[in-house]
Structures are given as structure tokens and as C-alpha cells.
Design a protein that fits this description.
The complex is a heterodimer of chains A (368) and B (242).
Chain A: E1 17-23, H1 24-34, E2 39-42, H2 49-58, E3 65-68, H3 72-84, E4 89-93, H4 95-111, E5 115-121, H5 137-141, E6 152-154, H6 159-176, E7 179-185, H7 186-190, E8 192-198, E9 221-222, H8 229-249, E10 253-256, E11 264-267, H9 270-285, E12 290-295, E13 297-299, H10 303-312, E14 317-322, H11 329-336, E15 342-346, H12 355-366
Parallel strand pairs in A: 2-3, 2-4, 4-5, 5-7, 6-7, 11-12, 11-14, 14-15
Antiparallel strand pairs in A: 1-8, 6-13, 10-12
Helix pairs in contact in A: 1-2, 1-6, 3-4, 9-12, 10-11
Chain B: H1 25-39, E1 46-50, E2 65-68, H2 74-84, E3 89-95, H3 96-102, H4 104-112, E4 118-123, E5 126-127, E6 133-134, H5 158-163, E7 170-175, H6 179-197, E8 203-208, H7 212-215, H8 219-232, E9 237-239
Parallel strand pairs in B: 1-2, 1-3, 3-4, 4-8, 7-8
Antiparallel strand pairs in B: 5-6, 7-9
Helix pairs in contact in B: 1-6, 3-4
Classes of the chains: A alpha/beta (368), B alpha/beta (242).
Amino acid sequence: MVIVAMIASAGKEAMMSEKKFMKGNEAIAEAAIRAGLNFYAGYPITPATEILEYFAVHLPAKGGVFIQAASEIEAINMVYGAAAGGARAMTSSSSPGMSLKMECISYIALAELPCVIVDIMRGGPGLGDIQPAQSDYFQIVKGGGHGDYRLIVFAPSTVQEAYDLTFESYSLADRWRIPVVILGDGALGQVKEGIELREKSSVLIEKPWALSGAKGRKSNRIVPFNLEPLELEKMNLALQEKYRAIEKSEVCFEEVNINFETELIIVAYGTCGRIAKSVIKMAAENGLHIGLIRPITLWPFPCDEIRYWACNFPNKKFLVVEMSAGQMIEDVRLAVGDDKKISFYGKMGGVVPTPEEILEEIERRVLC
Amino acid sequence: MLKEEKILSRPEILTGKFSFCAGCHHGTINKLIAEAIESLDLREKIIAVIGVGCCATMYGFWDVDIINAPHGRAQAVATGLKRVHPDKIIFTYQGDGDLAGIGMHEAIHTANRGENITTFFVNNGIYGMTGGQRAPTTLPGAKTSTTLSGSEGAPIKMCELLETLSAPAYIHRVALFSPAEIIRARKAIEKALYAQMNNKGFSFIEFLSNCPTNWKMTPLESLEYVKKMTEYFPLKVFREPQ
């Protein structure tokens, strides 16, 4: 297994570490506290509630503010205020709750405020169910709210990675002045694993734009609107320029077992990416050479990497595995540029695919 | 020889031209709040959170730290700001559509938490920015662009509603149809900000206001209509800060 890209913004190396057995949700909350979280507001929702509960117990003890908001909308708007005040702020939810937060996320994007938002996805649409799903990809990666904006989206596949990426997310959010989403699913949120709680120094930067009362300086204004079309276009162009820079420098993914012999490349993220690793091992025993590209950032998407393998090795096939009807596959199609090479295997409604059924699909249909 | 002394000038924190219509009370209320902030020497401590509506353009002429909130959410945004800057003075400025319509959830819960912020609620019984639609506070019988044969149903009384909660520190409804009322309003603003400075908790000032443009009245006629509003929305202190 080779990790070809690590997060560009990795902080100082581990000074000391501590091992703990934690749920994914708890690990995310602990990482945020260690990254210097000042403010959290959230609302109970399965399967993300442990994040709220963990902060209720641990955040005030570390000097941070914890508020249980009276709605998802109130929670994200409190985060908007706290982030505008220069705090490291977070909220968390699950799919239906994320739908409610979307208007304010669009405001935060144009206001260019750093914050971290956790979405522990569950089955949809509607009230759906409370089991793991990946059907918020369109909503989180492509927008969800109104207007042309982007969010940096991390898709951890293990509890350790959820911890590490959450820790990193604050430096990225601050540096780019952009909301970062930790996009997990019910399986990641609920599974308990032994993890290393690495102590790293999280980079704190000056926030001269923050609202703190205009003492000894000009007043600061956070105004995510402009009634003059040409002015609003300028604001949009500045956002797009920032997004192009992020696309150049923040793409992150993992590659497993991809070489000249690889017949099939699975593209999967999060829990499905983890399942795909089991598929690769089982397939090797059957003499099949299967590899994996696992996007760790869903935006920016590892488009160039997928395109590289598709263009230079025309015989390689691709299989996209998702817990959805097929959402990320649209980005894979754009990267590969030849739909005939791409197959899809998906489960919906909170059903998690097994390695056996994926392998069977590969042997019976994809590589036949 | 006659000595000239300047006793009153425009508050320095109001730097640009108002974007409000002629005769509109928003201009008066903006000036009163700015004067109160200056008289309490709060300019360097103030963070203003502005709702959606005619007031959304206030960032263009207020020289204080300022943020525009999503429609109805100013009090949630103010809560986030206050909790990370407890030593700063935070006020929200919201109209009746923003606060009593789409923002009713925040209006209740922020007050019920006793959040130590101040809300200035401008109630002119209509959606002004969008051209005069019925608001939750529109008087029965009023003709608006969405109630052509007269509004039906009971307008929401925000002060009375908030009075049912135990947490708010100061609740007061004022109006601006006469110099005496304007002076009372100015005192109420100062009292609300002072309560916040002394960590008394949530303070709420409702201004019965006008909208000559969308009421299709002259400014003078609109003052008479505000007087009529007081029959339904009585002017009084609902709760004094303790």
C-alpha cells in the first residue's frame, strides 16, 4: 500500500502520542478540541449525536464554548457569528440536518470565513433512516446551497484518519478562509477503533478581518452580498480564483496496488474505500489484479490522477463503488472521459456493500 | 456678544448617506442608536448584526464592526459573536418580517436563553424591501400587495409574547411619531445597551415604525397611522432591567 499524497499542510511531527479506543464521532470531537476549538454549536441527530455529547462534556473544560442550539439552522448561524469573531468554530450534523444548514453555508462561503462542519451521512432522501450512506455527495461536494461556491471536503475512511483530517482541517480552513467539511457516514461515526491521538501543533494565524469591536483600527465589515451586479461579479471572480488555487495545492488521495498489471481500478471513498481494500486482497487470492484510488479530498477531486491512468493505460477499467445511486461517478466520468470503461456498484437506503458481493460483481460482470 | 456653541451634531459613526426612503423611521432609529452608542462611549466595543430587509444596507454608512446575517438569523449570529467576545456589545437590527416572520424561532430561543445581547426590532407592519407585502404584524384590514382586500388574522405582538418568558431582562415598545416619543425611544436604546454592559441579559426594544412608500401615504399621514397602531400595540415597558 502506497500513500502517494499526504496533506500538504501537515503540522509539526508527532511530539508524543497517546492511544485510545474511540468512536469515529468521539475522535472527530477530540481532534477539534486539540486543534484549539473555541466554539461549538450543534443539535442532536443520529448517527452524529456523540459529537455533540462529547463537546458538552469536554469542550467547556478546555475553555471553549458549547451551545446546544434549538435547531440545525440556529447552530450553523451561531458558527457563522463565532467564525466572524475570529474563533475556531464547528458544527456537526447528519444528512437531513445538513439540508437545513445549506443557506447559511452559502453565506459563510461568500463571507470567506473559516469553520469546520461535520456531516455523518445517513440514508435518504426524506427522513430516510439512520444507517450509513454516501448520498450527500452532490449536496456537499457540488454545492447544496445557492450560488457558485466550493467547500473543501475531506472523506476519512478510518477513525484514525477522521482524527487526523479533523485536526488538519482547521489549518486549511484558516489559511484559505473557507469552510471545511468532514464527510463521514454512520459506519465511521459509530465504529470504535484504537487510535493514536497525535499531539501536533496546530498553526494559529492572525485574523485581521475578524469582528472584535473597532478598537484602534478601521471597522471590519462582513457583508456577503452586493446589490451591484458588477461588484458581486468581482466577489465571485475572487472566490473562483481562490478555488483554482486550492485545486492546485490541496488534492489528497490514496492509491493501493496500482501498477502496469492492474486490470481494474476501484474508485471509492470513505467506508466504501475501506471495503475496497478487502476486495483487493480477496481478488489477489483469485489471481485478479485490482487497485484502488481513494479520494481523501472529494473537493478538490483527484481528477488529474484518475485521468493519468485512464489516458496512459487504455486497457484499465474502472469500477466506482458508492453507498448511493451513483453520485461521485459523475466526477470519475469527467476524469476518465470514456463511459464504456466505467462500471458502477452501489447500495442505497443505509445498506453497506460487502466485499464478497463487490468481488462477485467484478468477476461476473466487470472483468468478464 | 452672542456666543455660538455647537450642542448637537450627526454621530461620527454614521459616515455615509442613508439608503432609506424619505420620511422613513429607519433613518431616525439609526441616528438614535448611533447617538446612544456615542454617548455611552461604545464605538470601539460595538458589533452590529444586521437582518435582511431595508436595513441590510446599513454596512454602507455605519463605521463600526458589522455583519449581515441570513434572513431571520441575526440573533443566532449575534449569539456566536457574543459568546466568543463576551466583553463586546452586540446588537441585532431587524424588521418585522425578519424577526417575527422567518426569524420567529431565533426570536423566542435567543430571548429564552437570556442571551446577553440587544435586539432592536423595527415593526412597520409590512415587508418594505420587497415592495409591501403582508407581514406577521400587519394590522387587520390593511391593504398590502398580498392582501388586496384587507389583511385578515391577528398581528403578532412580540413584546407580549416575549413577556411570557422568564429570561429576558428588558422589554420595551416605543414609537417615533412625536418628539416626546423619540426622546423616550432614545432613552430606551441607552437603557438596553447599558443593561447589556452590566450583563443583565437579553434586552429587546420594539420600535413602532412607518413605511410611507409601501403604505402609500405621505410621511405625515404615516405618523397618524403609527398612532393607530398603538391601539393594538400599546407603548409600554413590559419588563424593567433589575
